[in-house]
Design brief:
Structural class: alpha/beta
Largest sheet: 6 strands, mixed
Strand order of the largest sheet: 7-6-5-8-9-10
Strand content: 15-25%
Radius of gyration: 17 Å
CATH architecture of one domain: 3-Layer(aba) Sandwich
Distance between the termini: 30 Å
Order of helices and strands: HEEEEHEHEEEHEHEHH
Helix content: 25-40%
Length: 213
């Protein structure tokens, strides 16, 4: 779910402006998964731009207050969600934790760093939703710790149909500040891509795992 259309458009504009998102329909990127992609998104770059960072964090706080107001802990999904979660928790004066991709191999062998206690209401933070697998695995870890996952908030979603279904099946409400459709629309209006390239971007989103092969 996109939190607010005006915010989504502004976030998309900022991501394009600071080159956190690069659209290259005719020269695809190769993702770590092996997929070919006409888009590359690195929302960590937000952290290096104070104006954009402030807007994104303020937008996260507004979205959380509207959708997950009962939240007691902000939990980042490692690694890209950690910095955003820390800034949000500080702004909201709430405790913060983060969830590892895998358990620590020494010491206490924790999956969760910081403190989440049974029964606490947790809002999870992610920078990007593609397949949703890592985000939902993190939500499972929080639930296994006995806490209640109110939902997950992210900067950006590709809005793949499989990821939408996965979040619904896991019963993890998802709120995103911006998304693929809005970004493509803004990129076209501002001249980052040509109208003739839109069909390529639409084709990719339908079958991302096989596109370009």
């Amino acid at each position: 779910m996109i939190y607010d259309k005006d915010i989504a458009a502004q976030v998309a504009d900022y991501l394009l402006e600071i080159k956190a998102v690069i659209l290259r329909p005719n020269q695809p990127f190769r993702w770590a998964s092996g997929w070919n992609s006409p888009i590359y998104c690195d929302n960590r770059i937000i952290l290096s731009h104070p104006k954009v960072r402030t807007f994104v964090i303020d937008s996260f706080v507004a979205a959380i207050n509207k959708n997950f107001a009962a939240g007691e802990v902000i939990a980042g999904v490692a690694t890209a969600g950690i910095a955003h979660a820390a800034l949000i928790a500080d702004k909201m004066n709430l405790p913060m934790a983060y969830v590892r991709a895998k358990a620590k191999e020494h010491g206490t062998e924790k999956m969760i760093e910081g403190r989440i206690t049974p029964g606490q209401k947790v809002v999870m933070i992610e920078d990007l939703i593609s397949t949703g697998k890592s985000s939902l695995a993190a939500a499972d870890s929080v639930r296994e710790a006995g806490a209640n996952v109110l939902g997950l908030a992210a900067v950006f979603t590709y809005n793949f149909s499989d990821s939408v279904t996965a979040f619904e099946e896991k019963k993890v409400p998802l709120v995103c500040l911006s998304g693929y459709d809005i970004l493509v629309e803004r990129a076209t209006e501002k001249g980052y891509i040509k109208s003739s390239e839109i069909s390529l971007l639409e084709e990719w989103r339908k079958n991302p795992s096989t596109w370009g092969r």
